[in-house]
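Wed. Picked up where I left off yesterday with Carboxyltransferase domain-containing protein. The coffee machine is broken again, so keeping this brief.
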Amino acid sequence: MSLTIIKPGLLDTLQDLGRPGYGGLGINRGGVMDRYAAQVANMLVGNEVREAVIEIHFPGAQFLFEQNTLISITGGHFNAMLNDEPIPLWHPIVVRKNAVLHFPKLQNGNRCYLAVHGGFCVPQWLNSYSTHLKAGAGGFHGRKLEKGDEIPFKESSIYFAGLLKPGKEFEALKWGVDTGSTYLHPNEIFFIEGNEWEQLTYQSQKAFLQDNFTVHPFSDRMGYQLKGVDLHRSANTELVSSAVSFGTIQLLPNGQLIVLMADHQTTGGYPRIGHVISAHLPKLAQLRPSDVIHFIKTDITNAEQLLIAQQQELNILQRACTERLNSLYVKH
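Structure written out below (tokens, as returned):
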């Protein structure tokens, strides 16, 4: 069985944690923008973290569930509802067949993630389920989801109807995830110096650290264009194109900045003045156009410690979710 798109959203695609290892062929990693939220969504429904999820932008699609299943929604808060009843984020939720999920109101964040127990049954492209829109490959026929699309689920032996109370279309299970530490101070983004940081003039370095920058409306999955004070290098020498990554902060010729996101190109010739630390990429991914960013410089040691702490939290969470779900299946 499957879910069906009964009304398309702005940009809803199947994504996973991406396809690393193909940069030498000019194929970027891609994948979800908020890797933390996507991993947690899969954990809550008992999946491996690399299973495909649906990345949803507001206004989101409307989904019809054609079988009883277990779902979770994480990331941005779009006031998710099942049959016009609000459902909680960051919780596992048992859904009855023929229930309709929709997202009527933006509360905060820029994208949310829908996971289903077992995952979505779609073919991989280069070892990943992620949609590569430029190549028209991966995901669901290499494109965003449209009205009438039916996305099959992988097989499950769990009888989810036994977890539903009579007359109820869904049941939110009793546990959830506290994400306070991951998204704390959402506008404060830590970065480490890039190769061309020292090429900035002293005044530009000072302005970058003291001033705020605003996310431009033209921002997308390839990069966030930022509006702020013009920054300058001491000498405008040409650079050889070099490797870039998710979170690289580049200085454009007009003095403005761009932060590369999940669908970034594999190389770039603009000065790399910094890199957003990996632990803060989830916060960055949830910023919307007109949101403000304040960059805070840190070092590699602190960046590594924050990432290790975040990964340890995910490991603990995965074990806890597995234990909870296993006990539930045994009980029923």
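Quick read: Residues 300-331 form the longest helix (32 residues).
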